[in-house]
Write a structure and sequence with these properties.
- By secondary structure, this protein is mainly beta.
- It contains 4 helices and 13 strands.
- The protein has helices at residues 26-36, 88-93, 130-134, 274-280, and strands at 116-118, 125-127, 137-143, 151-159, 164-167, 175-176, 185-189, 193-198, 205-214, 225-229, 235-239, 248-257, 260-270.
- The longest helix is centred in the first third of the chain and has 11 residues, at 26-36.
- It is rod-shaped.
């Protein structure tokens, strides 16, 4: 066997002297660059464009904006998302509007037990408590001197069951309802003209108005006080001071609201008759014999 040194030349293998190193495949090039540090930024040329690699662990020159601070992308029209905070800035800049306090309904003052309450034009209304409205009786008196004239007292009323009429002692109608054995309102005469309301039956009474007039139809020299007294001796006082006149004087109105009496000083003169006064206050279902006397 011949050794390589003794072997004759091989002219057919001349191409071996001019062969070049085969080009590296992309995968072998990337591996070679990584092994020799060619991909590190410090080894790149300054003009070379940076490349992206999953193995590049260098910190970026400018920090990326935080997702929480990045502007929210515009949502398509009509879309809704629970994570859409685009309106937060406008809400934060909106002026503060405090919630208004609830409006409370006006309640007339109560009558103090055992005390006197004088009604005036600025404070014309009071409310009796349930005890004051439902125990004993309510006494209504026109306390005035004979100098006032022939003053008479009456009341137009409406019961809770519907019937309506007038209590008027001067006309012979002394009870409400007329002829009742257990009247709700009684018209009487003592030291003064008076009406007595049975408070045990207060829920059978819807409302009534108290009025005064001249028995002869003449001029009355108004004066004195209308006094309402409860079972517990609480008093409501209403002045009767007016210029002399021949009309009908509506003194007070009383409404029963859920078993409690709301009393208002009306202090209104009606230029007319008893019937006109009743109509003026909504008692339009009363039938009359004349302008003063009801049909019972």
């Amino acid at each position: 066997m011949r050794s390589p040194a003794d072997a004759p030349p091989r002219p057919d293998l001349a191409w071996l002297r001019h062969r070049a190193r085969p080009a590296a495949t992309p995968s072998s090039q990337a591996l070679s660059d990584f092994m020799h540090g060619a991909d590190h930024p410090r080894h790149r040329h300054a003009d070379a464009a940076p490349t992206s690699s999953s193995l590049d662990l260098s910190a970026p020159s400018t920090p990326a904006p935080s997702p929480a601070l990045a502007p929210a992308p515009a949502s398509p029209a009509g879309s809704s998302s629970s994570l859409d905070l685009s309106g937060a800035e406008s809400l934060a800049n909106a002026p503060f509007k405090p919630t208004p306090a609830p409006v409370r309904a006006y309640l007339p003052p109560r009558v103090r037990a055992g005390a006197a309450t004088v009604l005036t034009a600025k404070a014309p209304t009071v409310t009796l408590t349930r005890v004051q409205s439902g125990v004993g009786s309510l006494l209504i008196e026109a306390a005035c001197s004979p100098a006032v004239g022939d003053l008479r007292l009456g009341a137009a009323y409406q019961l809770g069951s519907g019937p309506t009429s007038v209590v008027q002692r001067e006309s012979g109608v002394t009870t409400a309802p007329p002829g009742s054995r257990r009247p709700v309102i009684i018209g009487q005469r003592g030291q003064f003209e008076k009406l007595t309301v049975d408070l045990v039956q207060v829920r059978d009474l819807a409302r009534f108005v108290v009025y005064a007039y001249s028995a002869s139809g003449g001029v009355l020299n108004w004066g004195g006080t209308l006094v309402l007294t409860t079972f517990g001796q609480s008093r409501i006082e209403m002045p009767l001071d007016r210029t002399p006149s021949p009309g009908v004087f509506v003194l007070a109105s009383v409404f029963v609201v859920d078993g409690e009496m709301v009393i208002r000083w009306e202090n209104e003169e009606i230029a007319g008759t008893v019937r006109d006064a009743a109509l003026a206050y909504g008692f339009d279902k009363i039938t009359w014999l004349d302008t003063r006397t009801p049909l019972v």
